[in-house]
Specification:
alpha/beta, 8-stranded mixed β-sheet
């Protein structure tokens, strides 16, 4: 198989420089189709892989929200980008506390990677549920829905614009000899407001906005809630957040296309404002540490330690610290949590109401 870098060189030589958004899309399509990127031997680790406590608490969150929704049956339980299926497996195990919930929900995984679908199939083989896979959320059957997206929006392609003396010019990926390099479109085209200073970078998450429009419209027209957990910020903000990870180390985003994980930080304000336009309720946002503590992760850790060996108890303490520590580069502070819901759902566990919720619901 020809490398993606070879294919990109041919594409750019034939069509000219491509947008960062298109570059990210092509790289991530190849990356996820050809590997399991998770774990110590992969490129990164997610919260569900650190401890069962994470998925169990998300499961309890789903049970409470389903009850507040009026216990609809049927109800679609959806995960976007489910990785190895670990979060869903832990979530479904926690759902045994409420048999009526298990009878009401059908499980839907939105996943395009054949490799990860097989990992999910193996992980959920004993869950007691038939699992349905979909390439797009639009393919999930209509009806009340509960959705979780953990580290999903960060992997959606973005456009990037750079402030110049001519205005905002889009950042492109082109060729310099045989090497991929960043450049700029010759003419400005983006109405992004006045640049703060030359060289400032503004990211525009067009793919995320389109997804959030569809999701919030679905929740507004039917009923349900969506829980979004990712690393990001409350915008608007300026800066280049495009990063590449390989074997848990940062690498040049252009150096190994299709062989490293590409992500950007999520603009949670943009997601919330997009959802509010469809008259859904906004809940949060909170840091992951605040959210998990509000759901009782420390009590869950203490319960697990009662039945653990000393070595296992130490592992539980380390996992707890990784999930809730709130330093600027720690998972508990870097990751944020936002929920959106049907207008009739006034509160959700662990998250305060947000003032972006439209005044008239």
């Amino acid at each position: 198989m020809r490398t993606l870098e070879d294919q990109l060189r041919d594409l750019i030589a034939f069509e000219g420089p491509i947008t960062v958004e298109r570059y990210m899309g092509l790289c991530l399509e190849r990356y996820y189709a050809t590997r399991d990127p998770l774990g110590a031997v992969g490129d990164f680790t997610t919260a569900p892989e650190i401890s069962q406590m994470f998925g169990e608490l998300i499961g309890l969150w789903m049970l409470e929200v389903w009850h507040a929704m009026g216990r609809p049956s049927p109800c679609r339980l959806i995960e976007l980008g489910p990785g190895r299926g670990t979060l869903m497996a832990d979530l479904l195990r926690a759902s045994r506390l409420l048999p009526d919930f298990r009878s009401a929900v059908s499980v839907h995984l939105v996943e395009t990677s054949p490799t990860l679908r097989e990992r999910q199939r193996a992980m959920l083989a004993t869950s007691g549920f038939e699992i349905a896979w979909h390439d797009r959320i639009e393919d999930v059957p209509e009806g009340p829905a509960l959705l979780v997206a953990n580290e999903f929006f960060d992997a959606l392609p973005v456009r990037q614009f750079v402030a110049t003396d001519r205005g905002w010019c889009e950042r492109l990926v082109g060729l310099e000899g045989e090497h991929l390099v960043f450049g700029l479109r010759a003419e400005p085209e983006a109405p992004l407001g006045k640049p703060p200073h030359p060289g400032a970078i503004r990211e525009w998450p067009a793919t995320s906005i389109a997804l959030m429009k569809g999701l919030s419209h679905r929740l507004a027209c039917e009923t349900g809630a969506a829980l979004i957990i990712d690393y990001g910020y409350w915008g608007p903000a300026f800066g280049d957040t495009l990063q590449a990870l390989k074997q848990h180390q940062h690498v040049d985003p252009l150096s190994e296309p299709g062989e490293a994980d590409l992500t950007t930080h999520v603009d949670f304000q943009r997601l919330a404002e997009t959802a509010a336009g469809n008259k859904v309720r906004i809940h949060g946002m909170a840091t992951q540490g605040e959210f998990l503590q509000a759901l009782g992760i420390e009590a869950r850790a203490a319960s697990l330690k009662q039945r653990a060996t000393p070595a296992q108890a130490a592992d539980i303490d380390r996992a707890l610290a990784r999930l809730i520590a709130r330093g600027p580069t720690e998972m508990g502070g870097l990751f944020k949590v936002l929920a959106i819901s049907h207008a009739g759902l006034e509160a959700v566990p662990g998250l305060p109401p947000h003032p972006l919720t439209p005044a008239r619901m």
